[in-house]
Specification:
Layout lengths: L1 H9 L7 E4 L2 E8 L3 E5 L5 E5 H5 L3 E3 L9 E10 L4 H13 L11 E7 L3 E10 L5 H19 L3 E2 L36
Antiparallel strand pairs: 1-2, 1-5, 2-3, 3-4, 6-8, 6-9, 7-8
Helix pairs in contact: 3-4
Length: 192
């Protein structure tokens, strides 16, 4: 009961806010003396004892989204063969195509790490629609895949390991079309 009173007066969240409490994500539907109830994005009701809620980190996605906006961010790994300016441009273009992403501030890119075989890039963009967060991430990922496929730039995963013809990147012919059947493995001798 004391935890319920503490949560009420700490104002960590309000009814209707999109929050993550520990591993649970959802919209706050009630805050009682003994428990807090969330509705998950899959329409599941989650009841959390307030003692447990008060002992965990609480991330409130809604509180600042209305004024400063919520920053969406995702990472892609691209090989060193792609010029970094091209990658930045493709990521910013992709974020700009997502409805619900603010035009101001303009999306921005960080180069997070220079790895053995690829560079990790992070695209950041702002939304004011905190309750649409999962849908916006999905749309952002779709636009990134389409932009890179159109430009012929291959997205690598951090653990990319495959026995394949390395002479050509594995990319779809059209962003929304089926992928071509991969060819057999072959090694081309160097010209002298």
């Amino acid at each position: 009961m004391i935890a319920g009173i503490v949560l009420t007066y700490s104002r960590s969240f309000a009814i209707g806010d999109r929050v993550r409490i520990g591993e649970h994500l959802g919209d706050v539907v009630s805050l009682g003396y003994f428990a807090t109830k969330l509705r998950s994005p899959r329409n599941e009701e989650i009841t959390l004892p307030n003692g447990q809620v008060a002992a965990q980190p609480i991330v409130n996605f809604t509180r600042l989204a209305g004024k400063a906006g919520l920053v969406l961010h995702t990472q892609v790994t691209i090989g060193y063969g792609a010029e970094w300016k091209t990658v930045h441009g493709l990521l910013i273009e992709a974020a700009g195509r997502v409805e619900g992403v603010e035009r101001e501030p303009e999306p921005w890119v960080f180069q997070r790490s220079l790895n053995d075989y690829h560079i990790t890039y992070e695209i950041c963009c702002v939304t004011r629609e905190s309750h649409q967060q999962l849908l916006l991430y999905s749309r952002l990922h779709e636009e990134i895949q389409d932009a890179f496929a159109r430009a012929g730039v291959e997205i690598l995963s951090p653990a990319y390991s495959s026995l394949r013809d390395a002479n050509a990147p594995v990319l779809p012919d059209e962003p929304k079309g089926p992928r071509a059947e991969p060819g057999g493995f072959r090694i081309r001798p160097r010209d002298a």
